Amino acid sequence: MGRSGIAKAKTLKTQPSAGKVMATAFWETKGVILMDILSKESTITKAYYANFLDQLRNANREKRRGKLSKCVLLQHDNARVHTCQLAMNAVEKNGYELIPHPPYSLDLAPSDFFLFPNLKKGIRGRHFRFDEEVVAEVEEWFHGKDPDFFTSGLLALEHRWSKCIALEGNYIEKEEVDLDRKYIVG
User: Fold this and answer.
1) Quick one: pLDDT band at residue 134, thresholds 50, 70, 90?
2) pTM higher than 0.90 for the full model?
3) Using CA atoms, how far apart are residues 176 and 163, in angstroms rounded to an integer?
4) List of residues 6+ apart from 164 with CB closer than 8 A
C-alpha cells in the first residue's frame, strides 16, 4: 500500500494470443466428418461455404462408406451464406436434404447449442499463441470424444424441435444451467 493507504495497481504482463478463430464443422452421430478453421483474416463467404459442401460429399464418401446411398440430411441455420443461391445449388448438386430451420430460432442448430459450447468449455482457460496450436487442440478434443457424445447432441435436437413445435415457433427465453446460456427453446 502507498502512503495514502490505497493499494497500488498491479501491472500485469500480457502474452500475445492467437485471437479468435472461426471453425466450420460437419458432424454426425459418430463424430466430425469435416472441419475447417479459418485464419483470422478470412471470413465465411458464399463461395467458401458452397465449396465446403462439395468437400463434405468427398469426406463423407471416405469416412462414412455406404451412407451416400442413403439420404444425407443437412441442418444449418439461416445465415445468408447458408441460404444463398450458390449454397442452395451445392446442396441440390450434392443430393443433401435440408432440414428446415425456423427463422429466429438460433439454437436449433446442434453445432450452436451443443458442439461448439462444449468445445469451448473443454478448452477454456488454455492460451494459444498460434492458430496451429488452436487447430491441433480442437482436433485432439474432437478425436477424444466417444461417439455417444455426438449422438447425445443430435438426440437433443429432437427434444428442441418438439418444444419449438409445441410453442408454435414462439420465442421464449429459458435459463439453461448446463451450458450457462439463454436459449430460444429449451
Assistant:
1) confident
2) no
3) 14
4) 102, 105, 108, 185
Name residues whose C-beta falls within 8 Å of residue 89's C-beta, 6 or more positions apart in sequence: 50
What confidence score (pLDDT) does residue 11 get?
Answer: 57
Q: Are 25 and 35 in contact (CB under 8 A)?
A: yes
Q: Which three cell numbers mark 135?
A: 487447430
Long-range residue pairs from 77-83, CB within 8 A, at least 24 positions apart, any chain = 77/101, 77/106, 77/108, 77/109, 77/112, 78/103, 80/46, 81/44, 81/45, 81/46, 81/48, 81/49, 82/49
Residue keyed to cell 446442434: 110
Phi, psi dihedrals of residue 176, rounded to the nearest 5°: -105, 115
What domains can be seen in the chain, in order of their start residue?
22-183 (3.30.420.10)
Compute the CA torsion angle 104, 105, 109, 111 (nearest 10 deg). 80
Residues 6+ apart with CB under 8 A from 66: none
Q: In this structure, how many other beta carbons lie within 10 angstroms of the beta carbon of residue 75? A: 18
